[in-house]
Amino acid sequence: MKKIVLKVIITCGKCKVCIMKTVAKISGITSIALDVEKSTVTIIGEVDAVLIVKELRKAGKMVEIESVGPHKKDDKKDEKKECKPLPPCCSACKTVAHGNIVWYEDSNACTIL
């Protein structure tokens, strides 16, 4: 997977739509991100940067390749949230044979679902 960042002039909403449509037609792309403030398009996938530039220039857009490099996946997505252990239940919860017991910290009470 490659991460390609292109500098593109974006002046209006019509420009955004044209850029997204043009880039989306190219096969091998996993994701497209458009940053209007920075005037950049970030493309992730197995695709040639020159091919993308060529297609955008055919569509009449001024394009420059800002960077091309390997895509690094975020480790934050892979981390699992650890659940807090539930506090001991009240005597009313212990008599229930089935259902889920939920502890709300705000009310210091159990809820049986």
Layout of helices and strands:
Blueprint: E1 2-8, H1 13-24, E2 29-35, E3 40-45, H2 49-58, E4 63-70, H3 91-94, E5 101-104, E6 109-112
Antiparallel strand pairs: 1-3, 1-4, 2-3, 5-6
Domain HMA: 1-68
Protein name: Heavy metal-associated isoprenylated plant protein 39-like
Keywords: Lipoprotein, Metal-binding, Methylation, Prenylation
| β-strand amount | 25-35%
End-to-end separation: 45 Å
- Tell me the number of helical segments per DSSP (H or I, 4 or more residues long): 3
Supply the helix-strand structural class: alpha+beta
* Biggest sheet strand line-up: 2-3-1-4
- What's the Cα radius of gyration? 25 Å
Query: Sheet bearing the most strands, described?
Result: 4 strands, antiparallel
At CATH level 3, the topology of the domain at 2-70 is Alpha-Beta Plaits
Helix content: 10-25%
What do the pLDDT scores average to?
78
Low-confidence stretches: 94-98
What is the total tally of β strands? Answer: 6
Could you say what the CATH architecture of the domain at 2-70 is? 2-Layer Sandwich
Could you state the order of secondary-structure elements as H and E? EHEEHEHEE
Considering the chains and any ligands shown, give keywords for the structure.
four-stranded antiparallel β-sheet; 32% strand; HMA_dom; metal-binding; alpha+beta; methylation; two-stranded antiparallel sheet; Alpha-Beta Plaits; HIPP
